Amino acid sequence: MTALAEPPVMHEAPPSGTIWRLAEDRSSFAGPTDDRAGGLPDHDLLEVALGPHHPSTHGVFRMDVVLDGEEVVRLKPVFGYLHRNHEKIAEKNSYLAAIPYTDRLDYICSMTNNWAYVMTVEKLTGFQPPERAEYIRVIVGELTRLFNHACLVGFLLQDMGALGTPLMYAFREREKILDLFESLSGARMMCNYMRFGGVRCDLPDGWIEEAKQVVAEFPRFLDEFEALLTGNEILLVRSQGIGVLSKELAVNAGVTGPMLRASGVGYDLRKVDKYSIYPRFNFRIPLGQHGDVFDRYMIRLLEMRESLSILKQALDTIPAGPIVDPKAKQRGLRPKAGEAYGRIEAPKGELGFYVVSDGSPNPYRFRIRPPSLINLTVLEDMCLGHTIADVVIILGSVDIVLGEVDR
Amino acid sequence: MQTPEQIKSLIEQNVPGAQIELVPNGSPGGPASILIDSDHALAATTFLRDAEELAFDFASNATGIDWPERVIKEKNKVKKMVDGVEKEVEEITEKKTPAFLETVYHLYSMSLSTGPLVLRLRTGDRGQNNHLPSLTPVWRSCEFQEREIFDLFGIVFDGHPDLRRILMWDGFKDHPMRKDYVEPDDYEYEPTPHDDVLEKAQRHYAQEATV
Description:
The complex is a heterodimer of chains A (about 400) and B (about 210). Chain A is α+β, with helices and mostly antiparallel strands and about 400 residues long.
């Protein structure tokens, strides 16, 4: 007769000094730390790899989660599944050849990626885009913000369990804007539209009228969306008080974009840096009070309304004229030795490019500051103490695209 | 916002012993950057963050640059006596700069809406002396970015709470963003190789013959 075996231990406490080193010593971090992160409980814990093929991770992204019952006590994001070293590729190619690659960073918002890169090279060389080009950039940039936020809200609702419908409503509106982009640049997603000192081609005939039509119809979609969702009890219960991010931690951890403003910090580069021609337009910056998932959801809805107001003003006042700086050089560009850091308010946060030139035809150093990656710094802090179902929602409210996180 | 010169003297007044240099920037209107010695980096950056008149509470961007040993040619016009007549002759002097790795931080102030201040730290060389102090204890936003610099450039950050590879896998050797990185021989069969594909094919077959 054999003795009964001991019940199997599900998981021993994570070994210190290897994978979970961060957990042991959080005191060295700047900013306030969560009290729960002091140490691990004595009893058995369960370690779960959430992703990389989990549908709610918005791509190939993995979170190694340690669970105490259903409660998250540790969370480590794991990156690199989509890494192709975009920076190295750009350093081997000419300045112009990097523009189509930037489309593939945040592949939902290719226009704003283009914009941030050409703006940096303009800083490096001193090219001045003409007025009409600046207007076109603002228009396509705000259209990008519109459908990015609409899709994000759709994805977030999908993660909460509202399968399909909100996302398809958002995608229906996105299609209209993608049609505009297609008639403008020839491509729906990989637009490759901006050039140093301007844009690649002028607006086709009748484009402004079509864009005005889309902008005029958009509020109806927003009203419908809000009537369906914002007062919904399930949404309120699942999102309010979940994943709270404090002001101090958000600033210290370099969180930017709607996520920062949901925590109540009024920092929008369109107002702070006054880049392009944004100072000419009248718009407000919505701010959150609590920094929870619901505030992040609401901020996006409010920002879409402000974008619509910018679009209306820009479409009404766009002047005629050239679309490229005549002094600008596209092919064989060799900027003088120097460096420039340019940043714009992309839909996901502050998208920055840092280019160092040594006078040769390709950049000596080409660096992207990805808002998606840096906003994930605080993912663990937001998730501690919540259940695994909330982790999915908190990640959804950050708004990441893995093409940009892994580059 | 204060100019880089003013910020330099402010740090020198408040952090005793800090050695600071200004690095000029060739692009039009681009700000000069501040190079701090690594021993006083932590004290100086803490001062930059906490000083009321500066308040650089937001470290936007942290990145590395690889500078292998370079030879810089400088042309100078020198007056010389040639055959008894004074003439202007161009003389080319060659200067060697030592190899080092560099980290660059772009700092902004959210509370004062100022910036950027460009901060640089340099390692001793590209080999064993590749250590720099981590600025993650000052700005949490450097956490993932310094891991990325460690991963791609091989700069070791002392005081980083969780220094592991972030984009490449754990068993990976070498640092891909260094200028002397050699790509692995991942050859795919090509029926009609030409130009650089042919070169690559020949290199591959030569390697295969030796294995």
